[in-house]
From TrEMBL:
Native source organism of the sequence: Chryseobacterium rhizosphaerae
Entry's EC annotation: 2.2.1.2
Protein name: Probable transaldolase
Annotated function: Transaldolase is important for the balance of metabolites in the pentose-phosphate pathway.
Designated gene of the protein: fsa
Heme is among the record's keywords: no
Family affiliation: Belongs to the transaldolase family. Type 3B subfamily.
InterPro entries in the record: Aldolase_TIM (IPR013785), TAL/FSA (IPR001585), Transaldolase_3B (IPR022999), Transaldolase_3B/F6P_aldolase (IPR004731), Transaldolase_AS (IPR018225), TSA/FSA_arc/bac (IPR033919)
PANTHER family in the cross-refs: FRUCTOSE-6-PHOSPHATE ALDOLASE 1-RELATED, TRANSALDOLASE
Amino acid sequence: MKFFIDTANLAMIEEANALGVLDGVTTNPSLMAKEGISGKQNIHHHYLEICNIVDGDVSAEVLGITFEEMIKEGEELAALHPRIVVKVPMTKDGIKAIRYFSEKGIKTNCTLVFSSGQALLAAKAGATYVSPFLGRLDDISTDGLHLISEIRTIYDNYAFQTQILAASVRHSMHIINCAKIGADVVTCPLAPILSLLKHPLTDSGLDQFIKDSKKMK
Ligand code: G3P
């Protein structure tokens, strides 16, 4: 399972990359705005900076909502760097845009997916990645993991090549459960990845080893 970091913060991306387990980056307009990035030139420059840090796919979301806007923006984004993935929202125009990009060999990430039907359409259109939002479904008392599991079954039934990118992942149990279900990728902030490191028996065991190692010197 690939690990992507879901942030536009360069320091956090560098920290995650230094761990040696990072496979890519996802961003969205909210994450870019949080970093104060605005204006086409600055946005493009920021995506290039991310591509220079991480040797993996970098999702860059289109801001336009019509087919024509998405195509124009997406082609500009894809031309920035070969590892840019054009992130497109799950709408009628979005699906048309994914089909267009797919025929041009441009990688896509279909975002804001909350149902199996939407995921099926994204795969039919030729999306490289589909992003079901796990945590946001949990937020409204719906089983987000069940959706990931249903999409896995549907894609396996027909050998769709679209990768399931579990998004809106909030904690380490989400990551473990996505791995059990067979999601291809999880994207989350740095904290849930770091929390995979932690176990109280590791801490107490290490304390004891450090104490005993002093007896050996
Ligand atoms: O990038 C999409 C998704 O991962 C956002 O997560 O936590 O805002 O629901 P969240």
